[in-house]
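TL;DR need structure tokens for one chain.
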Amino acid sequence: MEIRDASALVTGAGRGIGRAIALALAREGARLTVVARTAAELDSLVSEIEATGARGIAFAADLRARSACDGAVAAAVECFGGLQILVNNAGVGAFANVQDTADEDWDNVITTNLTAVFRLTRAAIPHLAHAGGHVVMISSLAGQNPIAGMATYCASKAALDHFAACLMLEVRQRGIRVTTIAPGSVDTEFGGSARPPDTSWMLSPEDVARTVVDVVRLRDAAHTSRVEMRPARPQKR
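>> reply
TL;DR here they are.
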């Protein structure tokens, strides 16, 4: 796909991987609709996008609400005349054993990591089909690898992986490509207090962002359905 002048919607764009993806697409000339809960983070990001010479708009919303998912897609289409790239990046974690996991924590993770992706993608499909678009799912190696104390997060990413695989089979004949990118340890604030003191061995958000750009700009006849990413030299245990 030609990224220049394509309309791209990136969720979870306020920080970390999402911010890096938005800026990488902006540097390729995409027109960005960036979505996150915190308006101040998005305003700062839009300024950085515009500094690259690209165009960007902020859509501050909580994607756990269906109206926010529909509204984000509508905003991108209205502002830029369509939608060619959807990056489902927004995600949250829950770090607790199953016995200690509260209902509200389970609901928060599943709604953010899975239900919002379903709603955004459903709203975007008609526009993506019209444009020969691309859906990128930012998953995690945790979707394929069980981790004690992270059952809720692992379950959400495992479900996301299967959702993406089914979606790919449904829409590929309509000209929509679907790629799941599953990174391992990435140096972001996601892990909170669980982050190791030395993060130099980790993947960077920019590593993931460059991969997004690479898979999107493949020629239209090529389809990379899944990419797994790992640190080249993981931390010694």
